[in-house]
Design brief:
alpha+beta; two-stranded antiparallel sheet; transmembrane; Peptidase M50 domain-containing protein; transmembrane helix
């Protein structure tokens, strides 16, 4: 349990290989693409140039990160449930905007920092619409595919974990000293978004953590993925469809159409 996973790595001008006992992940720098092949199918002698690598984080640390993250999420939900209020002031929009921007910034920085600790770099930071409807900022971390599974878990947990920890501190401080409805409502909104990101659907951090814990890489060709991954993808589209219908109905009701 306290041991750290090991593998072999080959890195040169053309790309990188992470050679594990059963599978090998290949990064081709020219195309920017990642491939996975059974280790037993590697050409003879290719491992002569490989160097041994050890995961940065142990199995205990990886599972501890997941379990403590779940406990932090439950704590956030309890604070949110008992602190519900809508009695906000005129300063709420400004405070809410500042808080959300700071939370997103800290979240993405946590991913980048964890990835850097593990010896890899991020590809890009951007904004996109998940499934064409759900807005999200993101850090593209394709090089996490070249990490051992415990390191992947920590990297993908990092953003949610730090947000949840900060939220708990702010909930306590607000309850003990500030007693601000503006802060409380902002934190409650953040809990909802973090819960959504923790669910293993919609290409969320929770989904990436589940893949890492299962020691599975998701393929671009969907038919090559395990059935449970395809089932999650179908569920994601169902959720998005329901959400889209709800938003359309709400919009029409707001306009009185």
């Amino acid at each position: 349990m306290f041991a750290r996973p090991t593998a072999e790595r080959i890195r040169d001008h053309s790309g990188e290989l992470l050679i594990c006992s059963d599978i090998t992940v290949i990064f081709d720098k020219a195309s920017g693409r990642y491939f996975q092949v059974p280790t037993k199918k590697l050409p003879a002698g290719i491992r002569n140039n490989a160097v041994d690598v050890i995961a940065r984080f142990s199995t205990v640390f990886a599972w501890g990160t997941v379990i403590s993250g779940i406990l932090l999420l439950i704590t956030n939900m309890v604070f949110s449930f008992f602190g519900q209020t809508t009695d906000v002031s005129h300063r709420f929009p400004l405070l809410f905007t500042i808080y959300i921007i700071a939370s997103v910034f800290i979240h993405e920085c946590a991913h980048i920092f964890a990835l850097k600790i593990c010896g890899q770099t991020f590809d890009k930071v951007g904004f996109k619409l998940h499934y064409g409807i759900l807005p999200a900022f993101y850090v593209r971390m394709n090089k996490s595919n070249l990490l051992l599974w415990t390191d992947k878990v920590v990297v993908h947990c990092a953003g949610i974990w730090i947000n949840l920890a900060i939220n708990v501190v702010l909930f306590v401080l607000n309850y003990r000293f500030w007693q601000s409805a503006d802060i409380n409502v902002s934190l409650e909104f953040a809990v909802v978004t973090l819960m959504a990101n923790a669910l293993p659907v919609l290409s969320s951090d929770g989904f990436r953590v589940l893949l890492a814990l299962s020691k599975v890489n998701e393929f671009r060709e969907r038919t090559r993925n395990p059935k449970w991954i395809r089932a999650i993808r179908i569920l994601s589209w169902v959720i998005v469809t329901i959400y889209g219908i709800y938003m359309v109905i709400s919009f029409y009701l707001e306009l009185g159409l």
